[in-house]
Amino acid sequence: MKTNLSDLAIFGRAPTFAEKIYVGRPNIGDATRLLERIKTLLDSRWLTNSGPLVKEFEQRVADFLGVKHCIAMCNATIGLEIAIKATGLTGEVIVPSFTFIATAHALQWQGIRPVFCDVDPLTHNLDPARLEQLITPKTTGILAVHLWGRPCNIESLTEIARRHRLVLLFDAAHAFACSHAGRLLGSCGDAEVFSFHATKFFNTFEGGAITTNDDALAEKARLMRNFGFTGYDEVVYVGTNGKMSEIAAAMGLTSLEGMDDFISANRRNYQLYCAELAGLRGLQVIDYNQAERNNYQYIVLEIDQAETGISRDELMNVLWAENIIARRYFHPGCHRMEPYRTLDPKAGLTLPVTEELAARVLLLPNGTAVGENEILEICRVIRLVLGRPAEVRARLAHVQPAQSAQEVVAAAGVAEEH
Ligand SMILES: *Cc1c(COP(=O)(O)O)cnc(C)c1O
Fold first, then answer.
1. With contact defined as beta carbons under 8 Å apart, do 254 and 37 qualify?
2. Is the CB of 152 inside a 6 Å radius of any atom of ligand 1?
3. pTM of the model
4. What contacts 46, CB < 8 A, 6 or more positions away?
5. For a surface tag, which of 20, 135, 339, 374 has the fewest beta carbons within 10 Å of its beta carbon?
């Protein structure tokens, strides 16, 4: 346990952790059960194409979420692309920029312009009032994101979509097992899309799903997922290959059985982080509505440099030197990445909250791979830094220019020898 500022790795000491600690290390359920399922599927020689495990997984997810249809996908990006195509989106679609790049890419990939809308500073989700100002005759839909698993302002978005006759889709990649008004997400808008990527709270190695109560849309998405085939020799739509494999579904079924344990671990960790970081000026851990169900996957810090005296990036560099690989989700915002920054170099002017959040948000490690002792150490480092920001800054300036934490460590080591 580090107790003095000079114990920090940026001052040349050994890092807090011998091995790196990551954001989003996979949660893995009962491995024995998983291996049994894999044995069964190998014996059956049914590896993909809507096999029994995918069917069972879809049914169990639909039952769990309380939604009519779950269409399992090979990943959420293809799920988004199919949902976008199946709902007939064209022209312009309004999306947040403060999200993972796949949200925007799924539109751009099919020649639809993502129109970036700013978010609310408290919820980090689309700001409905700003959104309405961005609607043009070319707008065909809204693709909202339940960021960090915290539900969007669903009522306002639904009302705006209805009034302007827009399709409403939700990127629910973060939001599996999260509720709004007492109902699990998955039934809102025209469709919602979940990600079961390895780094998400609940994984199928790679995977995703479209959920919807719309029978016709579900049918269309199922066809598009499988090249548009309706029978062995009959194709009725342009389609793609979005199928989930049986081994992914085996992992999904096992993850479903382990989900309560994942949530307990995440919630325990979240509460410990909150307790250990409470009362630090200029540093906030985002909150989750305790009256709702949450998966507590994301430990999201907001660092207000004016208050802390240290920037988010400076804190991150200190943490990386300690082998704590904290992450800047979602920096720098989609509008500052290609091709969007070339298409609209001035987009940032209309996205002040996104710009601000992209500069102040930092994610800390969570999940079943992270334990109590690790969290105590991580928080100890953060408290040391925030207690003496000026000295940390001076030290970082001394060891700079450092592009990465490895270089911070290396530079600190070299500096120490002089
Ligand atoms: C992870 C993620 C995706 C993409 O999910 P994949 O399953 O990796 O394709 C899309 N949107 C958001 C917000 C995400 O975090």
1. yes
2. no
3. 0.95
4. 52, 246
5. 339
